[in-house]
């Protein structure tokens, strides 16, 4: 019998279903002590259009992640999205500079900032949120640089206890939901346990012990398309998955996104001299361009 091959790519709804199924299977492989939470899926929609966000929303997805303030600001304020996705929950997962805090906090349906990695930033978010007179605190996570790679943001594993203590004691407008890490991109999950995930689990132990927080009160945001199943088996409670759901990042970033990336690179290297800074900006921009065409 002749069967016509479908040339259509699997729908976002189908890909979500597959990912949720794999999350379920990985959850059941966890040691019993880690079984208390069903991991939360954050669908990372950076560089993807609102049509895709709405398609995922219609399939039941509610939590979405973005890592540029400018892009989230545009998406979050879109009239059609506001109308169509009343219950959307945005997670900010990118590098955050203090001069962008006010803009970020003005995004409707902002649910969580996963990338608070120093006290000054925590204070800026806290003070700004306080001035907005919202009904409750804003959820945030302390970002830990578990791989030690200079290109990654995050506090050092050793300083996480102090950062969390600072937030708990000095930031009444922040609700510290847990710890987040990106981890090294180079680790092949087939080669064994990802040391970055081990590090984050250990940091949580330290933080919980030092500050008398029950383990289950501190989420772990770790795991992306390539390694989320392993991350869940190791105790991740939030996974951030982009390309597996939406396809590879193939749209050309907007000028505003490129400028923000360049600014981030500058901020990151503010102690370096000017020519080094310019190099950093160039490399960050070309990395971003590369990301967007692969
Ligand atoms: C892009 C991104 C993700 C998703 O990565 P995929 O490999 O596409 O799943 C997760 N976390 C952060 C911080 C990201 O920037």
From TrEMBL:
Domain of life: Eukaryota
Domain Alanine racemase N-terminal, residue spans: 41-249
Residue ranges, annotated region (Disordered): 260-294
Residue stretches of biased makeup (Basic and acidic residues): 266-281
GO terms for MF: pyridoxal phosphate binding
Cited SUPFAM superfamilies: PLP-binding barrel (SSF51419)
InterPro entries: Ala_racemase_N, PLP-binding_barrel, PyrdxlP_homeostasis
Record key words, sorted: Pyridoxal phosphate
N6-(pyridoxal phosphate)lysine modifications at: 46
Sequence ranges of Polar residues compositional bias: 282-294
Recorded coiled-coil stretches: none
Its biological purpose: Pyridoxal 5'-phosphate (PLP)-binding protein, which may be involved in intracellular homeostatic regulation of pyridoxal 5'-phosphate (PLP), the active form of vitamin B6.
Family: Belongs to the pyridoxal phosphate-binding protein YggS/PROSC family.
Protein name in UniProt: Pyridoxal phosphate homeostasis protein
Naturally occurring in which organism (per UniProt): Elysia chlorotica (Eastern emerald elysia)
């Amino acid at each position: 019998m002749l069967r016509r091959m479908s040339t259509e790519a699997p729908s976002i709804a189908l890909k979500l279903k597959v990912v949720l199924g794999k999350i379920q299977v990985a959850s059941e492989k966890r040691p019993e002590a880690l079984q208390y939470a069903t991991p939360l899926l954050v669908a990372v929609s950076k560089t993807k259009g609102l049509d895709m966000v709405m398609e995922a929303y219609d399939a039941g997805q509610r939590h979405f992640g973005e890592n540029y303030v400018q892009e989230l600001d545009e998406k979050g304020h879109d009239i059609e999205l506001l109308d169509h996705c009343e219950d959307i929950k945005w997670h900010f997962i990118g590098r955050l500079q203090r001069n962008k805090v006010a803009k970020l906090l003005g995004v409707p349906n902002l649910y969580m900032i996963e990338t608070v990695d120093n006290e000054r930033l925590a204070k800026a978010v806290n003070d700004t949120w306080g001035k907005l007179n919202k009904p409750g605190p804003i959820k945030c996570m302390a970002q830990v640089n578990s791989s030690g790679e200079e290109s990654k943001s995050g506090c050092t594993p050793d300083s996480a206890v102090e950062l969390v203590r600072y937030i708990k004691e000095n930031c009444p407008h922040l609700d510290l939901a847990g710890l987040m890490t990106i981890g090294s991109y180079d680790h092949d999950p087939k080669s064994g346990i990802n040391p970055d995930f081990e590090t984050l689990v250990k940091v949580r132990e330290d933080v919980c012990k030092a500050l008398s927080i029950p383990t289950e009160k501190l989420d772990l945001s770790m795991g992306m398309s390539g390694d989320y199943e392993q991350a869940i088996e190791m105790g991740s409670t939030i996974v951030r998955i982009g390309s597996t759901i939406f396809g590879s990042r193939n749209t050309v970033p907007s000028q505003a996104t490129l400028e923000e990336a360049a600014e981030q690179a500058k901020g990151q290297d503010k102690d370096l001299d000017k020519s080094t800074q310019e190099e950093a900006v160039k490399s960050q921009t070309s990395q971003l361009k590369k990301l967007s065409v692969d």
